[in-house]
Amino acid sequence: MPNVSPRLVKGAILAVDPNTGALQKTITLQYNPESITRSLQPQTVSEEPDRSEVLRLKAPPIETIRCTAEIDATELLAAGDSNTIAYGIQPQLAVLELLVYPSTSELNTNEALTNAGTLEILPMESSLTLFVWSKSRVTPVRITDLDITEEFFDPQLNPIHAKVSIGMRVLNVNDVGFGNPAGSLYMTYQATKETLAALAPRM
């Protein structure tokens, strides 16, 4: 029989319109991280030792996720990709970095409003970011930090290998409300946890 390897499903980060839920861009992780660190901080009613409130929860936990993605230009350089030859992996890094940037058009618009004497300027809204890690874990998140380590460079000093540590905070219904697309995605995420918990073996 032929040696058939299982199809590798890659993790991804999606950027969608926060109002309509329309997909704007997909960032497929080139290599799946070897590990993902998750932290859950329960949201209790009070930190004080009040016996009447000690078991009460006021909201879903604050969940944070951290993983390290690797980006490498070796295969694209071997294939003669013109953009990679000209810029290395800067385009891939730029896509990730722009998740935490307001657009230049928004910056210019706000500057024009400021110069026109507008008294109140609303903060600029970013895309809604989704972290996709298997079909049962599609999570609305806010990028909290990106740590980029560029390790190797071509003769033009373009980076050709980098590690990107990505910090994320899961957005729950307490953050965004039930009517927001992120709220609907979060409820599906938590409902899936409840379904999986029912499948756990009973010891």
Question: Which tags fit this structure?
Answer:
7-stranded antiparallel beta sheet, 203 residues, alpha+beta, 34% strand, single chain, globular, 27% helix, disordered N terminus, 6 helices
Structure, described:
The protein has 6 helices and 7 strands, in the order ββββααααβββαα. It has one domain. It has a 7-stranded antiparallel β-sheet with strand order 2-1-5-6-7-4-3. It starts with 11 loop residues before the first strand and ends with a helix. It has 203 residues and is an alpha+beta fold.
Major beta sheet summary: 7 strands, antiparallel
Envelope shape: globular
Structural class: alpha+beta
Widest beta sheet: strand line-up = 2-1-5-6-7-4-3
* N-C termini distance: 39 Å
Q: Secondary-structure element order, as H and E?
A: EEEEHHHHEEEHH
What is the percent of helical residues? 25-40%
The radius of gyration computed from the alpha-carbon positions, rounded to a whole number of angstroms, is 21 Å
- DSSP strand tally: 7
Helix count, DSSP H or I runs of 4 or more residues? 6
- Summed over residues and divided by their number, the pLDDT gives a mean of 88
Uncertain residue ranges: 1-6
Number of domains: 1
Q: What percentage of amino acids are in beta strands?
A: 25-35%
Task: Show the helix and strand layout.
Layout: E1 12-16, E2 23-28, E3 36-44, E4 57-72, H1 74-78, H2 82-87, H3 90-97, H4 104-115, E5 128-132, E6 138-153, E7 159-170, H5 173-176, H6 181-199
Antiparallel strand pairs: 1-2, 1-5, 3-4, 4-7, 5-6, 6-7
